[in-house]
Fold these 4 entries.
Entry 1:
Amino acid sequence: MKDIFKVKNKFRLLTAFCLSLLFFCLFALSACGEKTLEDISQNLSTYNLSVTFDESDNTLCGTETVNYKNNYETTLSCVKFHLYPNAFRQGATYSPVSLRNFDKAYENGFSAGEIDISSVSVDGKSIEVEIEGNDENILNVDLFQEIFPGEGVSIQIVFEVLLPNCVHRFGYGDNTYNFGNFYPIACVFENGEFVQDNYGSNGDPFYSETANYNVTISCDDDFTLASSGTQKSKSVENGNIVTTISASAVRDFAFVLSKKFSVISENVDGVTVSYYYYDDENALKSLQTGVKAIKTFSNLFGSYPYETYSVVKTNFIHGGMEYPNLVYISDTVESYDDYLNVIVHETAHQWWYNMVGSNACEYAWLDEGLTEFSTLMFYRYNDGYNVVESDSLNASLSSYILFSEIYESVYGNFDASMSRNVNDFSGEMEYTYISYVKGVLFFDNLEKTAGEKNFLKALKHYFKENKFTNAIPDDLISSFEVTTKRNLEGFFNSWINGKVILQNYH
Ligand SMILES: [Zn+2]
């Protein structure tokens, strides 16, 4: 008995020791391990949206209930929301459509779009609707009492949007109804104020926080719906198809409706990649390009943590547009090589926009330049595309130099600085050359300076440290300085503020 008792005791001690060791290992693993989307989503604001689309008058009516979480280090007495659809209204001071693109965007003449807010309530108590901003572009929601850091408040907004006949992010054409930037979305609070940039025609002038979305969309049952997030259920109510969708830890929510869509999908490492299209005889290759891009960027920068990714062919004036888990690819892109290039570019934005966010109004180069360069990197690892990286870089360099010379001869001087607000560029052309073309040359030079291995290591670091937040240029500089153990302030400065002499580069 005694011996047996002793053995049992030893056995118990050993079991307890093993269990403690196991718990310690599990704890250590969870402390060092990657946070899941579920973990991240716990501390974010949640948008609960319920909308109905009426094709007969191109309106979308809905209710948005935001469980708003104050994740800032200051108390808030109000919350401001962007009203992006108002940029499409008659008489808007800032239009998303430049004069140059007017006829292309409004194929049937000008058509107005807008958002009408019919009521707002805070924690169930009704408040007056206050539209402000310098172009009726902001909804101000005064809170009854200040909310402290970490506290939340429920804000309900009842709204109706009118979709313009405009082949834009928000609008419709012959093939698709595009719902990008269609609902009130909270402005980012920074340096003591809410950032309220207008929706102009230069760039993608959006800036928001990562949040969760529960969305219900009701529309005619002959539509096919492509959306951000995961479509959870479908039911038919009064001839309408009702789809419920959830998306965790995304920066925005968008959807596209069409009666012409065919859909093909493929699963890659747990992600369902879908291609929504019409008129594409190479549909499989288009889908494959999306699949390869998700795979390549996951390997290069860090994994894509969402369940879905949708590449959507649309009526759209520009080449493409990025939204979380969903990208527009324009049906007007002329060559198929360019079409595939847009798919790769917009997919790279899932890393440099959706996951690592930034203020695209202030630092457009930070996401566009890096996205363009990531697109070039894609071709290093994937054969079967008609892109040679060095040719593409040489073409960028010569076209940039030519642009700067022509610009200087016409306007007397050429400002090469990348650190400008989108609205401070003279037009789409200057914005594109500085943010994209010079952006690519900058990242190419940065890779040559840091070395390929360190360059990738630094981008992985930048992604890991900043995903699901908004980064600033200093965050990128810091990732490169930590990785290369070099002071790169002068290098970054000369490129970003425009002092670098490009003629001597290469
Ligand atoms: Zn882009």
Entry 2:
Amino acid sequence: MDNNEITRLYEEQLSEWDDFRLRVEQLQKVEWKTFDFGTFKIKAQFNPARAVSSNAKLDKASIAKRKCFLCSENRPDIQKGIKMNDRFTLLINPFPILLEHFTLPLNQHKEQEIKPYIRDFLDFAQMMTSHTLLYNGPQCGASAPDHIHFQAVKRGQIPFEEDYKTVARKRILGDDESHADELLEFGRKCILVESASKEKMETMFHLLYNQYQIGEEEPKWNLFVLFEEGIWHLFLFLRKTHRPTQFFAEGDDYMMISPGAIDIAGVFVLPRKEDFDRINKEIIKDVLQQVSL
Ligand SMILES: [Zn+2]
């Protein structure tokens, strides 16, 4: 598996799968706005195709009622995959938010949790150097909290990929070579774990997992990982809640904002025109504060 195979899968699916190609063409035409907060940027995307996902009922009963779209027996015949390792498969995401948007499900129907799969996550970042890998916690935006999966999107589309390089940091653990730092003046709580050693990455990850764990459940978070010049950069966006008060408001105060990993990392996905027209720095700041730890 290399970057060429990934490109080939994507190109083949684009040419064979008409509905998918149509959605990618729509995505290339969506409207964007960029908000500059000085130390970081947030982009907003007007994307009506995402209304279904933003409104999805994610409680256990609703999830149990629907057919799992990540299980191989329920996937459309036209959807092809690449074996990532013995456990995971790479698929194109038929409902993309960003260009070259992939889903990486486990080959078995097992619930969304990161702890047993952190090594896979780091491995995939190393294999997919043209892409950014991400993980949505089961209570923090995952649309299939019952089936463990990662996602990948083409690099260069989410502001945090550049923003993190210039923001101030506070060391939490480690030394200059292997460490975890909190990113400061970043608008939301984010811890960045960096090392050239996969073993050290895993050790630090488990330490932070234990530190932020609430009872038996996994910490509420969205994770991103980049592999650049031999170093892993693992971002832990720590969450307080999934959806902000605007999502539950009535009347004029209502906004369809349901932040998952991609939103918290810097791309607010807004399926309604009125929300896209209304979004501003104050609302973004408020939403980030509400949903971040
Ligand atoms: Zn499944």
Entry 3:
Amino acid sequence: MEVLAAKNLTKVYQSGKKALNHINLSIEEGEIFGFLGPNGAGKTTAVKLLNGILKPSDGSCSIFGINPGETPEKVHAISGVVTEHAQMYNNLTGLANLMFFGSVFGTGEEESKRRALEYLERLELLEAKDQKLGEYSTGMRQRLSLARALIHQPKILFLDEPTSGLDPESALNVNNLIKSLSREKGTTVFLCTHQLRYAEEICTKYGLISEGSMLAAGSLDELHSVVFKGMTVLLRDTDGEKNIEVESEEEVPSLVKRIVDSGGRVYHVSAHKHSLEEIYFALLEKTKRTAV
Ligand SMILES: Nc1ncnc2c1ncn2[C@@H]1O[C@H](COP(=O)(O)OP(=O)(O)OP(=O)(O)O)[C@@H](O)[C@H]1O
Ligand SMILES: [Mg+2]
């Protein structure tokens, strides 16, 4: 089922800046969609349009069939948003913040507390539950902000750079939580990030945006085939380490045979598809070339 759609979605700010230029998107339920693009590409603008914080200048978008520009409150009831500037209360404890936001969404006190404690535990904040938010570190605050976005059990979760301030262990925790939400509850995730390795670990689909335009969208394999034909073979032989491009895995045995036949020794061979990072830069590069 398609749960998020954008059709020719366009945003021109009052300044005249065209932040989004007729973008089209379609996301299925339970997908973890990585929305990738350089600074200023239009990612946050898209999140704001999809949550009714901004209205489109042209085109349209919908979340579970709801138009966020017309009835933002209906979208807010089923969506959770984590941004850098999540509003929470510094003078309340972590637990009290979560319970407060639970009550805002009409969740009863007991249920709010149960959910709050569950997320505090999963995000390793249980020890800090009675500490005031004002005393939280940046990474703790980011994790609490994720718990806050989940307290009303949203069907779709928007994450705008959720792990930018997190240490590797906390980022792993957040990753695992996001994956399990998608797997166990069918929660759809819209993840904006520049951290490509992190995205590659958890995303099931990707969209690449640059200067307000979508460059490509699809699975890793689909994006791969837009810019690369074959795969890379990492080979270490008598002459040292090198990367060799081949069309398919089938070429590997004959490649090794040629080296051995000519008296070389092969110590290591591994064929791999290009990483998301390589695909990302190749796509950006390709766009720049065609623009010139
Ligand atoms: N309120 C605004 N008024 C005018 N221009 C804006 C406004 N907000 C954003 N922009 C511009 O729109 C473009 C897209 O900004 P946006 O914040 O959506 O990018 P982003 O992809 O989220 O970038 P980042 O990775 O840095 O967060 C940028 O050129 C930005 O300067
Ligand atoms: Mg942004």
Entry 4:
Amino acid sequence: MKIKSLWLENNQIKKTTKLNKNLTLDVLIIGGGMTGLNTALELRKSNLNIAIVEQNKVGNGVSSRTTGKINYLQETIYQDLENNYSYDIAKKYLDSQKLAIKKIKSNVYKYKIKCDLDRTKSYVFTSEKKEVKKIQSERNILKSMGVKVNEHYKIDGKFNCKYAISVNDTYVFNCVKYMNQLKEILIANKIKIYENTRVKKMKKVADGYICFTENYKIKAKKVVIACHYPFFLKPYFMPLKVSTEKSYIIAAKVKDYKKINYITSTIPCKSVRYYKDKNNYLIYASNSHNICNDLNNKKNVNKVLKEAKKLNLKVCNLWTNDDLMTVDKLPYIGPIEKNNNSLLIGTGYNTWGMTNSILAGIILSDLIQEKENKYLELFNPLRVNICSDVDKYLNNIGSNSKSFIENKIVKNKLWYNDSVFFENKNDKNIATYIDESGKRHTVLSTCPHMKCTLIFNEVEHTWDCPCHASRFDLDGKCIKGPSTYDISYKEDE
Ligand SMILES: Cc1cc2nc3c(=O)[nH]c(=O)nc-3n(C[C@H](O)[C@H](O)[C@H](O)COP(=O)(O)OP(=O)(O)OC[C@H]3O[C@@H](n4cnc5c(N)ncnc54)[C@H](O)[C@@H]3O)c2cc1C
């Protein structure tokens, strides 16, 4: 079994260079995932001077570890939005998701993108009697919005199903293939892409921002924060506004390819789709949880592997992924400061980032070009819903603080046997992992972002932040934000 996303297998794409000079731009896009690439694609005809900077490789972030569903049937989101806001807001969200699906289809056909896009039937199902009513309500709302919804009492034979609904006009694809080809299209359209270039901080100036990478400065009139979790605290203070949900995903070779995908209506959720290249695969995501609440990676992975065994699946790939969950279930797309259209964001997709990143591309490009967009208000990152949000903000602070304090004190020593240990040396908190060959990997054990104590992820062999999901490789290189600093440690420090 490989510990690697199936989408990143045989992923050969030409690297682009690291930034090697100062730049002056109209638009800087920070982050080369679905959000950054789709925004650049929408801007390609704008005559603006645009560049993307990516701290690792384009298309290797959260977007490379999804289940790749392009779907508007998203658990029971429409009744959640109706409860949080109104029927009209729920309907507007549905329209936005359908627009995004239309857009992705048109990109695929227009640019002849080979990304295994396939029309499949999508289900939301439950095996619990008490959930049936909720899914029935979702069916009623969708029907009233003009969607053709089918009812079922059985799905695919793999799961016990009390009740399910399905829609027909949804898709799956290989997101990494899609992003790789977007990268080539953008380069052909003279949009510059710099890889291995991390933005570490930003400064507001009269006509935009100066962004600082390790060695160079980029001055831009507009900056798009497309890096999933913003690397700065102020403005916006993201830890208050989102929680991070993590899931464990496996791929298994199966005999048949089926044109269906399904997801449960509850958390922890189970999500399934099929994929076909030289082989047929079933992809199964399970055991989703807030990262602050369940830190033992090995235990969580074992749980999913046990489920796979029960389903008779022979696992060939295993990986994890996390996404940002907003307090009201709507993404954050737009300006993050009042009266400032120079600093824009697209994030908080609540695990539905394929459609919502396409939408972010459309909305942010309209904003940059000062065009009207009817979805601007819906996704406004500065919205506050006093009725529903305040307790969730407090919840976010609560679970972050709990994870912060607990992990500082306990350091979860009991999980690790003798291969991982934490110590204080010369006033520095450090942690060491001794690998199978006996080699010692020592790092600083405090996350540079907000000073949480890191945990060792024994399955993927990374150091992970249990509060805001930054990740570092064995020797301390930051591989995922919000941290912008490494945690490397040298013995003589
Ligand atoms: C288990 C799971 C399954 C999912 N399945 C689906 C699905 O089936 N369908 C769906 O619609 N959505 C799905 N999602 C959600 C989706 O994967 C995400 O919402 C989406 O990929 C986020 O895209 P992004 O561009 O914001 O982030 P990313 O793809 O992570 O892109 C951000 C990029 O910014 C870079 N970066 C970060 N900081 C910096 C910096 N300081 N300087 C330079 N670069 C930086 C990163 O390296 C990264 O490449 C799933 C999520 C999970 C957790």
